[in-house]
Amino acid sequence: MIRFLPRLRVEKVTLLGSLLGVVAFFLPIVVLKPNRVAEGTPHALWELHAPLIVAFLAVLVGTALILSLGPQTRLVRMMKVTAGILIFVVAVGSLIRAGSVFITPEMPFGRTTPGSGFWLAVLATFVITDGSLRNASIPRGVKSAIGLTPLLFLAVVALLGMLDNLAILKEFHNRESRFVGELLNHIYLSFSAVFAAILIGVPLGLLAWRRRKLEKPVFVTVNGIQTIPSLALFGLMIAPLAFLSRQFPVLRDMGIQGIGNAPALIALTLYALLPIVRNTYTSLAVIPDAVIDAGTGMGMGKRQLLHFVEVPMSLPIVLGGIRISAVQAIGNTAVAALIGAGGLGAFVFQGLGQAAPDLIVMGVLPIIFLAVLVDRTMGLIIRQVTPKGLRSQRI
Amino acid sequence: MIEFENVIKRFDTFTAVDSISFTVPEGEVTVLIGPSGCGKTTSLRLINRMIEPTGGYIRVQGRPVKSFRPEELRRGIGYVIQSVGLLPHMSVRDNIGIVPRLLRWEKERRHRRADELLQMIGLDPETYRDKYPHQLSGGEAQRIGVARALAANPPILLMDEPFGAVDPLNREVLQKEFLKLQRKLKKTVIFVTHDLDEAIRLGDQIILMQAGAIVQHDTPERILAEPANQFVRDFVGTDRALKRLSCFSVEDYLQEAMTVPESELRQARRSGKLVSGSGIVWVTDHDGVLQAMQRVTGNPEGEPLSEPLSRIVPAEVGINSYSTLRDALSRILGQGLPAVPVIDDSDHVLGEIRLADIEEVNQSELTR
Question: Is the ipTM of this complex over 0.85?
Answer without folding.
Answer: no
